Amino acid sequence: SVDCSFSRGVCDWKQDTDDDFDWNPADRDRGDGYYMAVPAFVGHKNDMGRLKLLLTDLKPKSSYCLIFSYRLAGEKVGKLRVFLANKKTAPVWEENKGKDEKWRTGKIEIFQGVETTNSVTFESERGKGKTGEIGVDNVILVSGLCPED
Known about the structure:
Elements: E1 2-3, E2 12-15, E3 24-27, E4 34-39, E5 48-54, E6 63-73, E7 78-84, E8 93-95, E9 104-111, E10 119-126, E11 133-143
Antiparallel strand pairs: 1-11, 2-5, 3-4, 4-11, 5-10, 6-9, 6-11, 7-8, 7-10
């Protein structure tokens, strides 16, 4: 497995330069490192911020599971979407409301066919809310299918 978490991960993360705002590091409650977040008050409604994970060494014709922690805290905070590079048009994962402030786990299966996925993009869309944040942490890429929990 490959650790792509932000504090000590080995992965290559890039801010998109064509979006409306950047994701920023935020300190974890426990004080051990940080996660990436977009506060609810950044930008205007429907503005987008994209953070891209570059994947360079995935083997063709194999499957991977991208596991990550996410949080949508605050009322009408917006949407979090995940896109794979070879399927640009539709998100492979989307969440638009948090039931509470808790962190949850997202999982996405990445099948490498003849065309390989060379990046994963986390996109935050600002909602109407003024408080809270959208956060992503503990991004890990494991070989094989996603575990059932």
